[in-house]
Predict the structure.
Amino acid sequence: MQQVKPKKALGQHFLTDLSVADRIAATLDDYKGMPIIEVGPGMGVLTRFLLDRGHDLKVVEIDNESVDYLNRYFPELDGRVLADDFLKMDLPAAVGEGDFCVIGNYPYNISSQIFFRVLDFKDKVTCCSGMLQKEVAERLAAAPGNKTRGILSVLLQAWYDVEYLFTVSEHVFNPPPKVKSGVVRLRRNSVTDLGCDERLFKTVVKTSFGQRRKTLRNSLKSLLPAGVTIPEDKIFTLRPEQLSVQQFIELTNLMSNLRNQSAN
């Protein structure tokens, strides 16, 4: 059987432990019958377990060598190996009109971008699970007060229940990465409206963590017109990693009010 050569430029580290692949596939056992997109299947180690579970599966692969391998050794995927870039492709066109799930052993170098892409389709992506660098996986699930909490922690947790499931050793890959991996699962929550201006919410979150060592009073000044005074509210004395999603929503509404006052 031919082998695909891992390509450093694509961040490829092929999983060799079948038990780990089986555990990752099991994260979508509650979503039988729902279309699933697997990102970066490589040589299909995870793909095999997803197919064996009877999932309605399509795979997205940017590496031509891997595409050829999958077409040769996974005939049951006939027409469902998509040679495309997950970050740029038209996902609804590939999957269809309904909701879908996303899974993968995500390349470390684009894992954050993949989750931002999932957020773009939060009204369609019911569940997203998979493996990525351990530190990034922990950040996605980080609770308020955790120093690793960041932009994606808040933006994802606004719309998803995020779980860190288990850690994977660096020794079960070819080639072995220099860091451990972590497996996460995101399940869409019941939120349909944040109760604030969603665009401003994103801006407030990104601006706050862009200067995470500063208090919110200092980091958010740039979002207000000159001369607008930030009120003596306790929330402005905090740093961004201390805030829950709900507190960021309250903060967004405070910032919106301050902007509106200055416009009147």
